[in-house]
Amino acid sequence: MKTLLQRIYLWIDERVELQGLVEYMGKKYVPVHRHSIWYYFGGVSLFLFIIQVVTGILLLLYYKSGEELAFESINFIMSKVQFGWLIRSIHSWTANLFILSAMIHMFSVYFEKAYRKPREITWVTGMFMFFLALGFGFSGYLLPWNELAFFATKVGTDIAGVVPIIGRPLMIFLRGGDEVTGATLSRFFGFHVAVLPGLFTVFLSIHLLLVQRQGMSEPLDIKKETEQKTMPFFPNFILRDLTLWLLVLNLLAILAVFFPWELGKKAEAFASAPAGIKPEWYFLYMFQTLKYIPGKLWFLDGEILGVLLFGIAGFLWTMVPFWDRKSSRGEQNRFVNYIGLFIVIYIIIFTIIGWLA
Amino acid sequence: MKQRIFIFAAALITVLASRESALANDKCLECHRNTEDKPSALFLNDIHYAKGITCAGCHGGNPNAEEIEQAMDKKAGFIGVPKGDDISKACAACHSSPEKMKSLGSSLPTNQWEFLQTSVHAKLSLKGKDHIAQCVTCHNAHGIVSVKNPASPVYPLNVVKTCSRCHSDIALMRSYNPSLPVDQFEKYMTSVHGKRNAKEDAKTAECASCHGSHDIRSAKDVKSKVYASNLPGTCANCHSNADYMKAYKIPTDQYEKYAKSIHGIALLQKHDAGAPACNSCHGNHGAAPPGVESVSKVCGTCHALNADLFSSSPHKKAFDQRKLPECETCHSNHEIIAATDKLLGVAPEAICSQCHNENQNVKGYQVAKKMRGLIDSLEAVEKRDQELVYEAEQKGMEISEAKFRLRDVRQARLQSRTAVHAFSEEKFAEVISIGLKTSASIEVESESAIREYYFRRIGLAIATLIITLVALFLFLFVRRLEKKQNK
Question: What pLDDT, on the 0 to 100 scale, is given for residue A225?
Fold first, then answer.
């Protein structure tokens, strides 16, 4: 006698040949070694992204874009909508944890040289998703239309405006005019809920497909070891992933209840900027660096130089699988490690300085 | 001692001799007297003539010369009739010099010119070259006498007319300050001060008593003696001086009381220039104590609603019959203290109990008791609401709407204090009920926010427990599965 679940499975299998996929997953193994812990951050990032999609859709039910409505609608969500405070707080906290988790994932992949051939496309799509995540953070920050967000967007788009040649048109495009206004809010809303999720979904699909197709990369030093331990992807790895996801969910619930995300004061275009205005923590190291660069350096404007340097660094970082040929040949490349270490230390130190400033 | 007397006598003889000699040789006066012109006739009564100052003292030239050309020679310093600011400068040449004034035996202050420069009269005239007023505008040119001399235009009994020569001239005042009234003189003549002045009481206040003499400033100038916050002190100069006011047989503690009153504290301590000063109730140029019937009208210029409510209240008739001043009976006059809820009710400190008790005017007693009960209950719920909103805020709950509505409760309580003046239980209860209803909604909202706070924590504890248990179960399940797989 077949159970109901078995009958449903057979019904689907008859139509889409599910058996092949299940057998494939059953044969898929994940390497087990002393660096295996880092494999889980990809899954945690995915989980946090799913939470963002779900809570974002729930917020959309009540959020109203527009200079006159945005702040009030968030206030309404937080004070009147049943569990609105929880959804909004989780959305805000998850945004930060998502970027943190994606950063950890990115650096672990970098230090393990998991980007090397044949996973160049996986790395590049991952980097694109990371940039899109920063875009999500930047655009979403403005949506409550509060004082801090307003001035942070003003500063952020000002910085974009200093990029040579394309800077000013880019700034006008982002702002929808010369200044940060209701038009900026409308297009940031559009980017946040339509453009960025659309692009992100495309890159995420390719990324996940490649991970499944190519399997997990093993670090170079582990690969040399003769006997390699593995665990089945399904159910072992999936269940371990799920356990970690539940712990992350717990953390999110605690953060949302004990540290509810504040709304602050409504943005006033003609008010003076509040003292100590800072961007979100993940932009802080760049913001702090720009503050230290002198106004004029040689023949270049200091700010332009800073933006250009970060642009070039970001490009080189994305292109690491193509210039680090040694790792692709299976050789150790300590130079890449030193660069990565320098960047991690740089980001940590400058973020702390920016935070304390 | 004898030696000192001798020196003094010698000096006096010398001064008198030189004065006599100077006047005897003043050919200017001699010729002008012969022509019988008015200035020379007036000059004979002038204090400067008495002090031995010749015409040349102001006009320059050589007063000893026989010939007119020599006497009025510009080389000899002859300036003719000074015009505009040169007039005051000529006066200041001596009056601003302590040495010269001392040598002439004068004890007059020497800062008049300096003060005049700071005054409103030192503004430029229409022609734009000279100041509006010169010394001679008030003191005359020839025939100047001491301010203590009843013939002086600035003698207390004459100064009002002297000022009004310009200040009652509509055309002249319009050209300088169209918004400045020109009826000060008429108003003054109706005031207690003006009436006494007309009866030749030189002690009563005239223009200079309040506005100053040489240093007259605009009433809007914070340094003016009649600027709102300076005015009580200016009035007190006379009215708080028991010796000076003795003859008038009126109290001299008004300033002391006013300074302690809610009006005085607002004006003198909190520097609220809009708070009432003496003139707000008594008038300024037409200053007089308001009569019994007009007290409520005077207070009502600011406290309009209170006055209206009182006029239609049962107290109006009762007060009129007993000839009681309306506002003053309960609130006093100069020493008006902040009206708290304690004034209402039947407790010994309540004003109502002065006329109403269980045996006398019983209906009023009962109404006062109920009204006090109502306002006390509103105050109690307002205090409780504040505590609840504070607690909810401290717990991090969003309670801004309820917090904003606390103002409505406070507003209702303030309105009830105004509504008291209708002395109608029904009208009073109507206002109180608005506050009580708002308070009830705040209470519901803030208590719900506090409950929500605890619900969130309990909910979190339960959710965390369930999630942790599921995670633990999964962890143990995987361990068991891996053990099986490794066998």
Answer: 58
Q: Does A251 touch chain B (CB under 8 A)?
A: no
* pLDDT at residue B294 in the model: 75
B478/A239 touch (CB, cutoff 8 Å), yes or no: yes
Write out pLDDT tens, residues A33-48: 888 899 999 999 999 9
The confidence score (pLDDT) of residue B14 equals: 47
Tell me the nearest-neighbour CA distance from B446 into chain A, angstroms: 12
Answer yes or no: are the C-beta atoms of B230 and B242 closer than 8 Å.
no
Cα–Cα dist B75/B456, whole Å: 103
Q: Are the beta carbons of B471 and A247 separated by less than 8 Å?
A: yes
How many interface pairs between A and B have CB atoms less than 8 angstroms apart? 50
- Tell which residue, B12, B11, B14, has the closest CA to residue B22: B14
Q: How far is A327 from chain B (nearest CA, A)?
A: 33
Query: Residue B464's closest CA among A104, A25, A257, A306?
Result: A257
Band the pLDDT of A271: cuts 50, 70, 90.
confident
According to the model, what pLDDT value does residue B4 have?
A: 56
Rounded distance, CA B214 to CA B135, Å? 9
Higher pLDDT, A29 or A317: A317
**Chain A, nearest residue to B474 by Cα:** A243
Q: What is the per-residue pLDDT for B10?
A: 47
pLDDT for residue B208 = 94
Tell me what ipTM this predicted complex has: 0.83
DSSP state of B265: I
What integer pLDDT is reported at residue A130 of this predicted model? 98
Which residues of chain B have a CB within 8 Å of the CB of A240?
478
What's the start-to-end Cα distance of chain B, in Å? 138
pLDDT at residue number B20 = 54
Cα torsion B97, B102, B106, B107: sign: positive
**Taking CB atoms and an 8 Å cutoff, what residues of chain B touch A79?**
398, 400-401
Cβ contact B463–A85 (<8 Å): no
pLDDT > 90: what percent of chain A?
Answer: 69
Q: Cα separation of B65 and B139, whole Å? A: 30
* pLDDT(B435) > 70: yes
Percentage of chain A beyond pLDDT 70 is 98
Report yes or no: A247 at the B interface, CB cutoff 8 Å.
yes
Chain B residues with CB-CB distance to A74 below 8 A:
none
What kind of fold does domain A35-218+231-272 have according to CATH?
Cytochrome Bc1 Complex; Chain C (1.20.810)
Residues of B in contact with A236 (CB under 8 A): 478, 481-482, 485
pTM, two decimals, is 0.66
Backbone torsion region of residue B291, taken as left when φ is above 0, otherwise alpha when ψ lies between -120 and 50, otherwise beta:
beta
Kindly determine whether residue A239 and residue B477, on different chains, have CB atoms separated by under 8 Å.
yes
Question: Cβ A79–B400 below 8 Å, yes or no?
Answer: yes
Taking CB atoms and an 8 Å limit, are B467 and A253 in contact across chains? yes
Residue A320 has pLDDT above 70, yes or no: yes
Q: Domain coordinates of chain A in residue numbers?
A: 1-30, 35-218+231-272
Closest CA to A38 of A221, A229, A218: A218
Residue of B451, B460, B462, B466 to mutate when probing chain A, most A C-beta within 10 A:
B460
pLDDT at B199 over 70: yes
Residues of A in contact with B464 (CB under 8 A): 250, 253-254
Angle of CA points B428, B431, B437, to nearest 5°: 130
| Set of chain A residues whose Cβ sits within 8 Å of the Cβ of B401 | 79
